[in-house]
Design goal:
Blueprint lengths: L2 E6 L19 H17 L4 E7 L3 H10 L2 E3 L7 H15 L4 E5 L8 H11 L4 E5 L6 E6 L13 H7 L3 E2 L6 H4 L5 H10 L3 H13 L2
Parallel strand pairs: 1-2, 1-4, 2-3, 5-7
Antiparallel strand pairs: 4-6, 5-6
């Protein structure tokens, strides 16, 4: 099964506020963009991915991610993460009603295409499925087979909320790169230990230089 991934990205100036103890206001937008670029690049290189749609109103992010091959959908609802994801999924299925759709976090800088393929192949067995994040509280991926609504419930305690919504939790091992999102300094260090993409590595170098 081939999937269309919907990736939401808030305006870069407001992104990654929980990294304030690691990166100042001038560096966080660049980090957030680098995370998204590495996420999109890895997703597009995945054999199970047909295409990637990014839902964003940030003009810089839209330009940079479109250059990588992502389609851009404006965040017309302006109603937060779940509204953006539902809007993106609707936009995909307006064009291709039979699409298998998955929501993927934009902050997976260590994402590995083969691990993402393993997760998506496992998800294809269920109407809706999700993968918990490394902290086992949130969610990094939510899938919906053709004919199924995405029904995103991202946000605090989304692992429980997605399970309660009827989505099947995927209990896969050795897919750490798909679980390791980055909200805090500790998350960033964990992603670096896994091995991040080139753009995040460059952004972190700037961060380290700025901190000297």
């Amino acid at each position: 099964m081939q999937w269309t991934l919907v990736i939401p990205l808030k305006p870069l100036a407001r992104a990654k506020s929980r990294l304030a103890d690691t990166a100042d206001d001038g560096l966080r937008p660049g980090l957030a963009l680098a995370f998204a670029q590495d996420t999109v690049s890895a997703a597009l290189a995945c054999t199970a991915v047909r295409d990637v749609v990014v839902v964003t109103d940030d003009s810089v992010a839209a330009r940079e991610l479109a250059a990588l091959g992502a389609a851009i959908v404006p965040d017309e609802p302006l109603g937060g993460l779940n509204a953006a994801l539902a809007h993106g999924a609707t936009a995909v299925r307006t064009v291709r009603p039979d699409s298998a759709v998955a929501a993927l976090n934009a902050d997976l800088p260590a994402l590995r295409p083969p691990e993402l393929a393993r997760v998506l192949d496992a998800a294809a067995e269920f109407p809706r499925a999700f993968l918990a994040d490394a902290a086992t509280i949130g969610t990094t991926l939510l899938t919906a087979r053709p004919g199924q609504e995405l029904l995103p419930h991202f946000g605090p305690h989304s692992r429980t909320r997605h399970r309660d919504s009827g989505a099947v939790e995927l209990g896969l091992a050795a897919v750490n790169s798909v679980r390791q999102d980055v909200d805090t300094g500790d998350d960033l260090r964990a992603a670096l230990a896994l091995g991040v993409g080139a753009r995040t590595a460059t952004a972190v170098e700037r961060l380290l230089i700025a901190g000297q």
